[in-house]
Amino acid sequence: LTSQMSNISAGDSSSSDDEGRSRRCRQQQQLPDMEKFSAQLTKYCRRVLTCLPSHCSGYDQNRLVFAWFAISTMDMLDRTQELNRQEIIDWVYSLQILPSSGRPVANCGFRGAPLLGSPADPHLDAENPLPYDASHLTMVFAGLGILLMLGDDLQRVDRDAVLSGVAALQTPAGCFTAGKFAPESDLRFVFSACVSCYYLNDFTKIDVDRSVAFLLACQTYEGGFGQRPGSEAHGGSTFCAIASLKLLGRLDSALPADSRQRSRLLRWLCQRQHRGFHGRPYKDDDSCYTFWIGASLAALGRANLIDRSALVEFVFSCYSGMDGGFSKYPGDSADPLHTYLALAGLAALRLEDERLEPIRPEANITERAHLHMLALHRAAAASAASH
Amino acid sequence: CQSQHLIEPVAAAAMSATAAGGWVLYRDRPDWADVTPLKQDESERTVLRIAYTEKFSDVHDYLRACMRADERSQRALALTADAIELNPANYTTWSYRRAILASLDGDMEAEMKLVRGIILRNQKNYQVWYHRRWVATRLSGADGTSELELTGEVLTEDSKNYHAWEHRQWAIRHFNLWERELAYTELLIGTDVRNNSAWHQRHFVLANRNGEASGLTPDVVAAETEFALNWIGQCPNNESAWSFLRGLHLDTGLADCPRLLQFCRELLATEAGCPHLLAFLADYRADQLDRRCPLAEGETRESVATEALRLLHLLATKADRIRRRYWLFVAGDLHARHGGQMPELQEGLVQPELD
Description:
The structure holds 2 protein chains of 2 kinds.
Chain A: H1 19-27, H2 34-50, E1 51-52, H3 63-76, H4 85-94, E2 96-97, E3 109-110, H5 122-127, H6 137-149, H7 159-168, E4 177-179, E5 182-185, H8 187-199, H9 208-217, H10 235-247, H11 251-254, H12 260-271, H13 289-299, H14 308-317, E6 319-320, E7 325-326, H15 336-348, E8 359-360, E9 365-366, H16 367-385
Antiparallel strand pairs in A: 2-3, 4-5, 6-7, 8-9
Chain B: E1 49-50, H1 54-69, H2 74-86, H3 91-104, H4 108-121, H5 126-138, H6 145-157, H7 162-175, H8 181-191, H9 196-208, H10 218-234, H11 239-248, H12 258-268, H13 275-290, H14 301-319, H15 324-338
Helix pairs in contact in B: 1-2, 2-3, 4-5, 6-7, 8-9, 9-11, 10-11, 12-13, 13-14, 14-15
Enzyme class (chain B): transferase
GO molecular function (chain B): CAAX-protein geranylgeranyltransferase activity; protein farnesyltransferase activity
InterPro entries (chain B): Prenyl_trans_a
């Protein structure tokens, strides 16, 4: 971050201000230099990866995702080598749900945490499966993502079981439920399914046409995409739709470049900038939309259409040097989700190329990890060819 | 944020305490003496530990044991309620609770009350809204009005709560409650003319209330156009109203409705700096060109294109500068397709490249 950024004024928001928020805004006006910034962020991420306080007990079932936020942040800073990578890799594999005579492949994949009491040894676990234990699509995405980021070769992943588990969660309408015991279904899980198939380079088990039909049914008259057909266009679901279509290789056929659908989508995305980005008209700018909106534009090849300095200024007004991370709004306290999404948005838009490893927007992973993924795909193809 | 519920502090609430006053740990309850609690299998060096409270660990140790045995009993039901208070985001607890309710043929009236309380305390939690739907479909004699009441209550506090709107749409579809929803959206729009969710809901009702056939008939489009123009006239700087207006004419095209051009030209007299008005006019002109519509006397394709470019240039340079790159991109694209005279760009503004 340049010295020009070090004296930015605190960002404002379009809503009425809190007393507390204003006070913290004034405290945040000094931005540290890149080395200090990287050190503060790393300290924050390492703390998250070690232990969270009791008021974070609501994360209990999703620990794998929060680990993913912290590791991904460190991957953008190119500092994952400072982590105990093998320990983390082994922990991820301990969360894999393997098939057995007592457990159908439909339940297989990854869980977010061992909170049902499953044994840490996945083979022991498979022999005595717990009744309510099943994969969750977001955890499949997060688990595979962490393995790729930390340079694992995925040899311990039961590809067939994971992919069958993903496919088993597709609904007749083409959507995906989160898991056998997590019956909610919306575009978040279409994305998780698509990106998991992408990481494993295999879309053959899911019904691609039906997914595309469902995705398109989620585009609203505003041009963005809602979580389900009929729902309001929203930044998060819009990213999920665009990324899914791109990963499925259907973006240009489903939303042709010169179509009204594409131009309405682009208009809607560009309208989401007040100073930073927000997720729906007349909602406050929120740092996480830096990614949902930013990566959407980047995936469409239109990153150049935004006002970069206004965005960067807003994003860094959400940084708290005291916490070492980013918050939703200027003046709030940092959390791992906003820390990752604020930075990943900038990285996907290529606004901080000298300081942050770029992000492949639709795959939601660093270019470095993406290259590693491609190398694994090539090796697997070569190995298959020689047999 | 979609994951907002994950960062809410643990809900503190009075629970099923057995002793007068304080909380009794499950391990100290005589009626649970037959159960061996099951701990999480984790080493001390595990990744991303959470410093659970003793109460949290104790409740979940017993929950794990019950779930492993798949016990379906009243005491297990009460245990899930305690676990849900501590962590309402745990979807497996909710699934297990539903399994118990199904086995015990549980009291759905009581469950509705319980869920209502949890929703009001955790308004952005996905699991609790799903559970509400599950109960509502099993409650005999339900007509869905309680769902409109509940979402209405939540929306009074937070008029844009995404879960509440989705639940409301579900109830309207499931219980066939289309009739009065337009009036509801009008009420909300009257309260906050920039409530995008209310405008969206209005479109949802109009488009879907006729089942398979689109509800956007010519009569409806005409009436709703006047509805939108009335609100735009009162508050022109309102993206939601303009989007809704566009949405009415998506299938037919803006240029098929000369009323729109007339209205916009009149509004220009007093609102020449309103970005939504300028953009809408540019869109109208672009539609005339794209669909090769017949033009008014004195107008040519070249003059219409020039006017559109002038409007886009105005947006980029004055009326909507944050989006200057986008408006210049749109202008470049229009010029490439339809010609017209490009206004001169000021120094410092760069035409973004088209691919």
